[in-house]
Amino acid sequence: MIIPAEGIVDFLNLKYDQYNRLDFIETDPISVPHQFSQKEDIEIAGFLAATIAWGQRKTIINNSNKLVQWMDYSPHNFVMNASKKEIEKFKDFKHRTFNGTDCIYFLRSLKNIYKNHDGLEGVFNTGFQKGGSKEAITFFREIFFEIDHPSRTLKHISNPEDNSAAKRINMYLRWMIRKDKRGVDFGLWKTSPSLLCCPLDVHSGNVARKLGILKRTQNDWKAVKELTDILLEFDPKDPVKYDFALFGLGAFEKF
Questions:
Q1: What is the C-alpha to C-alpha distance for residues 199 and 208, in angstroms, rounded to an integer?
Q2: At residue 158, what are phi and psi to the nearest 5 degrees?
Q3: pTM of full prediction above 0.70
Q4: What pLDDT score does 178 carry?
Q5: Tens-place pLDDT, residues 32-82
Q6: What range defines the domain where residue 36 resides?
Q7: Which residues contact 174 (CB under 8 A, 6 or more apart)?
């Protein structure tokens, strides 16, 4: 399919409208935090689901649901109050290269964040005050690993300072910050959606290149910035709404 340059925005708006619907939730990892109503439960369940969101979508959702099940469907209460014995059962968790050692550290770090840094929103908000998404993610990573941590776990929080696309964290930030009347993204946090960067993976990257709105061949932070700058021209207030279109075209339509 060849889209004339002047028709790309209309085409993406059409696909955004098609995919930003409640029936999108069922087949997406965002279905995991949608099981909860308390803000902190949504934040934690969403963060864990986003962290392991690579591989087969069905496996991602199943393993994410396993995590919240092991937390007795009370993620925030579990993070803050679980005994050492209760946490130890997570040593048996595994999703691809994310194993029990990583999982237990994540629980420990989340407790530190909610106890000492005003929660996930507090940390990211402080980071956004330093600039945009790159600064927010970089600052979050510093706080996340401020307590004693296994070196192997560092790889599970992407670092845009190393030119990582940080796809899963950008996706998580979209979930928490974007707010519309569709009911897919949560819009829990006060940060402006205009500061978000587009989650970039093989699907959205390939579609963006075919449409001519991304020239860079690597899926790295430079590509994230290049793509987001274009999307900001399409919608200065809500550039990452087009993630629905780009991902949907790639994942569901093999565009």
A1: 12
A2: -65, 150
A3: yes
A4: 97
A5: 999 999 999 999 999 999 999 999 999 999 999 999 999 999 999 999 999
A6: 5-251
A7: 185, 196, 199, 240, 243
CA–CA–CA angle 133, 190, 81 (5° rounding): 90
Other CB atoms closer than 10 Å to residue 101's CB: what's the count? 15
Give the count of domains, the chain. 1
Instruction: Find the length of the chain.
Output: 255
Q: Which helix (H) or strand (E) holds 112?
A: helix 100-116
Q: How far is CA 182 from the centre of its chain?
A: 18
Q: Above 60 in pLDDT, residue 4?
A: no
Q: By CB neighbour count within 10 A (0-12 exposed, 13-18 middle, 19+ buried), where does 210 fall?
A: middle
Paired strand residues for 89: none
Amino acid at the residue 58: K
Query: What six digits make up the tokens of 251?
Result: 């994942």
Give percent above pLDDT 70 in the chain: 98
Looking at residue 141, the DSSP 8-state letter turns out to be: H
Alpha-carbon distance 255 to 247, whole Å? 10
pLDDT band at 254 (very low <50, low <70, confident <90, very high): confident
- Distance CA(151)–CA(146), nearest Å, equals 12
What is the structure's pLDDT at 1?
A: 52
What would the two tokens of residue 210 be?
């075919």
Q: Helices 202-211 and 242-251 sit at what angle, rounded to 10 degrees?
A: 100
Quick one: how far is CA 161 from the chain centroid?
Answer: 17
Could you report the per-residue pLDDT of 150-168, keeping only the tens digit for each? 999 999 999 999 999 999 9
Helix (H, G, I), strand (E, B) or coil at 60: helix
224, 240 Cβ separation under 8 angstroms = no
